[in-house]
Design goal:
45% helix; 22 helices; single chain; alpha/beta
Length: 567
């Protein structure tokens, strides 16, 4: 596999995965190659010495070798001082992290050193290849030292992946491309991670490619939504700085509790250690019905009535939005066919729905929207979302489908069984087919989940955080993850509502709900109910001063210098 157009590339892989061989193949034949080694030789470890010698023996004789061992600052200096005509191969970052955590260096600002390394990579004028071990994929290390190494390496890999032009994972000697900005981006002057040169030429020009055009001919923005698309990530350094700042605020109590998470999330997505409360906020209410068994117990007439209410500013969702100072945008999605018999949508309908959601997010970005709440109303939406979650995670459908409420506070067991049967039959019908992101949208998701997926991807390109609330939102987040893994990092889950589909999908996505309100007022309502609380936490953290410090007693007499120190 070739990866073109990069100035810096991160090569990840496990032990003996072939990552070093692949990295060396990228620079073989280049003039002025400088090999930067980080592994310290231990004279008492014969096996380790043999590995180092093996690496040395296979390097071309015209390569220059730098030994950047022991002192983490030596690698940062080597990258910072590189010349534009050079090619640097760093093997590997794991050795650098091990040196960073050396007890002889502690206490030290490890996060600051990692951020400094990422900054050096971002501004490096040379072609740069970084080899790094991928963090363990399953078990958590059993020792404190092992956990500290895994945490530090994981953070380092994330920051390097954010600033690198390309990222490749090597598995069993086979390279898999995770990220590539492409030649168009690297021909520019080392863009910041926030810039999306490859995507800007499409969705940022609504007069040329709105959702109607995409629906008509399948072109426009939808054509750019492909697996492996490169989108921005929140700023991890700023997220950590935002959380660390909370400990320095002048508070009368112990702090923000669970709301520290929302402040850290906002700090990372706004790239500001003191994030502002979200304003304005837009609610995207997606209305799309399903035919067949997944809609058992639901009424298309009822969902249409609720969409009309929201447009008119009436109903629970609109009133909660008004209370929270949010604007509701109702978006229509195509009706989905019975998934137990055939695909929910055609490929053209998938493209149209994705383009519609994308353009909704682009409009929000142009309007300066600070956060988006995804909501949905439609017959069969919850069961279709369960089908998506089952197809993408392998979960048992019956365990994902919640009880179907009926009039008088009762539950409709017959409708629940019909939904289970429809999802089971749909999965059986497609058992021999592929389950890529677009196939999942076409086979099971229906219009509202496809539109929500487009909204999520479009919001990510515009660095707009998204509040998820309900099965449709989390199902779209799972599909978005398979198109662009960065999208899930812009999602916040205020509450899971104890819905089995939402709880399972949130666990897979790594989203931890902030609250447990147990509200069931329709998709999007719980997020709006929680929004004033989340805004209050952000406002308080933004406006509070840091705790005063005193170098010593001031001179006697009136004025601030004579004030008593804080006890």
């Amino acid at each position: 596999m070739s990866v073109g157009g990069w100035q810096s590339i991160l090569v990840l892989g496990g032990i003996r995965s072939g990552k070093s061989d692949y990295a060396e193949s990228l620079v073989t034949g280049n003039p002025l190659v400088r090999y930067v080694a980080t592994g310290a030789a231990d004279p008492s470890d014969a096996e380790w010495l043999a590995r180092i010698e093996e690496h040395r023996a296979r390097r071309p004789t015209d390569w220059h070798t730098d030994e950047a061992t022991g002192d983490p600052g030596r690698l940062i200096e080597a990258i910072s001082s590189a010349r534009a005509e050079e090619t640097l191969l760093v093997d590997d970052v794991g050795g650098w992290v091990a040196a960073l955590l050396d007890p002889a260096r502690q206490p030290a600002d490890d996060r600051g050193a990692i951020a400094e390394l990422a900054a050096a990579v971002r501004s490096c004028p040379a072609r740069l290849v970084l080899v790094s071990p991928e963090v363990g994929l399953a078990l958590v290390p059993s020792t404190p030292v092992g956990r500290a190494f895994a945490d530090a390496l994981g953070l380092t890999n994330q920051l390097l992946a954010e600033v690198a032009d390309a990222v490749v994972l090597v598995v069993a000697g086979q390279p898999v491309q995770l990220k590539s900005t492409g030649l168009a981006a690297t021909e520019q002057a080392r863009p910041e991670p926030t810039e999306q040169a490859r995507l800007a030429s499409g969705p940022e020009q609504p007069e040329q490619a709105g959702p109607e055009l995409a629906a008509a001919d399948g072109s426009g923005t939808a054509a750019q939504i492909t697996p492996g698309m490169t989108l921005p990530m929140p700023a991890e350094r700023t997220r950590a700085a935002g959380v660390a700042r909370l400990g320095r605020l002048d508070l009368p109590g112990a702090g923000f509790g669970a709301l520290e998470n929302v402040i850290g999330f906002a700090a990372g997505t706004q790239d500001a250690a003191s994030p502002r409360p979200w304003d304005p906020v837009q609610v995207v209410l997606i209305h799309g019905d399903h035919e067949g068994g997944v809609a058992a117990g639901d009424s298309p007439q009822d969902s249409a009535r609720r969409a009309d209410q929201a447009r008119a500013g009436h109903g629970a969702l609109a009133r909660l939005a008004a209370t929270a100072g949010a604007v509701v945008d109702v978006v229509a999605a195509p009706v989905a066919a019975p998934i137990e018999h055939r695909s929910a949508l055609t490929p053209d309908e998938v493209d149209s729905a994705l383009a519609t959601g994308w353009e909704v997010a682009q409009r929000a970005g142009r309007a300066g929207v600070a956060a988006i709440v995804i909501a949905a109303c439609g017959a069969g939406g919850a069961a279709a979302a369960a089908a998506v979650v089952a197809a993408t995670t392998g979960a048992e459908p019956a365990a994902l489908l919640g009880r179907v409420p009926a009039a008088g506070g009762k539950v409709d067991d017959g409708a629940w069984m019909s939904r289970c049967a429809a999802v089971r039959d749909a999965l059986h019908r497609t058992r021999r087919g592929t389950r890529g992101a677009r196939e999942v949208l076409a086979e099971y998701a229906g219009g509202e989940i496809a539109v929500a997926t487009g909204v999520l991807l479009g919001a990510t390109t515009n660095r707009i955080p998204v509040l998820l609330d309900g099965p449709v939102g989390v199902a779209a987040a799972l599909v978005s993850r398979d198109l662009a893994g960065q999208a899930r990092h812009w999602c916040l889950l205020p509450d899971h509502g104890r819905q089995p589909t939402v709880r399972h999908a949130a666990d897979v996505l790594g989203l931890t709900p902030l609250l447990d309100l147990r509200l069931d007022l329709g998709e999007g309502a719980t997020a709006l109910a929680a929004l004033p609380l989340l805004r209050s936490a952000l406002a308080l953290a933004d406006t509070l001063d840091e705790h005063p410090t005193f170098a010593g007693p001031g001179p006697a007499g009136p004025g601030p210098a004579a004030a008593d120190p804080v006890r």
